Amino acid sequence: MDGQPIEHHSCRVRRSAWVGLLGFVAAWVAEAHASADSLSELTAPFSTALLDGRYLGALGFVFLAGLATSLTPCVYPMIAITVSVFGARQAESRARAAMLSSAFVLGIAALFTPLGVVSALTGSAFGSALTSPWVLGALSTLFAVMAFSMFGLFDVALPSALQNRLAQAGGFGVRGAFVLGFVNGLIAAPCTGPVLAVLLTWVATTGNVAFGALALFIYAIGIGVLFWFVGTFAITLPKSGHWIEWTKSAFGIAMLALAFYYLRGILPYPRPAVREENWLAVALGLLAGGVVVGAIHLSFKSETWGTRVRKAVGVAACVAGLLGIVGWAEALPPGAHIRWIESFDAGKAQAVAEARPMLVDFGADWCGACQELERDVLSDPRVVLEAQRFVTVRVDLSTDRATDEKWALLKVYEQPGLPLVVLHHSDGSEASRITGMVESDAFLKLMDAVR
Question: Which CATH number does the domain housing residue 413 bear?
Fold first, then answer.
């Protein structure tokens, strides 16, 4: 590399590393294409993963979110200093250091875990609120603001006086380490806040209090794991650098994609009805191209307009790519699909006139479990074939399709929320109902019992 500045060469190496990472992700997604269940594990909301026995995968992503949060500028540079403050480095034994470090991490968990409980308790109200354009607009705005904060356009921080007061809290010993962990979560709000807002919104859709608490506890453990290792084993972490800002940019891109995702019912963007390989290839290309252009390694704080424009173009391409990948993941698998009647009254009249059983599916685009039922169960070729003897009715409660009459119909079935699939005998009586994720074989047995 004669004649080339070392920093330019280093920058190109780092960029190549990002491209290589994206190549690995692309290859992994292509492999996952062979199994819809594998991809569903990545896209399923917490409640669906829990009901389907795959909650460990969902919690794994929560842990990674916490770990990634600990790599942001509000947290990472303070790890070594904080560990020294609560005395882990000066502890007389490894066991004592581990105890102090554990108390610190549990202090972080004590701050975040109740938030998961509160968020889950508001789950049913949250689901209904997601049909309101005003609520969706507010959520989208929140995520966009959080994304801009991650890009460094402004900082969301506690008042300096309050930060200083919190930093002096605690004292020494296990109690002091616990208190310091609790207030550390507040001090790190500029970086934990945006991620936490996304996570709490996700948890609210589950309505599961125990799992909401567990998810936020795992998130706190993810944030605190580096503190624990540094405090217990006296590890020296790599120095802060540009990679910390890259982590924030990655979070910002994900949050900006979420902002557009929540607006899909108000400002619809192109999404495939059926999974197509060409669609996925284009989406992955946009994501990779955005990273190469500068979505991650460039900064909006640059003094040159050219760099800022490249950053903006890269971010836009990455957001479009992420939305394309999510749209592909949510699309139905190739093959035959159930033909739905949109009017409940018309479907019921047809079932009575033809003396046929009826299948009623309540769903919405904001209901993750409903979408997984549609992809993995109602699109199963065996289920599609068996559904031909039913009058099939779809009651769509999506943001742009919900009406007062449809919500009233859900109340007639005395069901507080989604998902809901109801099977009726040919005489009109209810045979069975599904209110969570089931396997195709179990669903087929319920259908076979309907007469």
Answer: 3.40.30.10
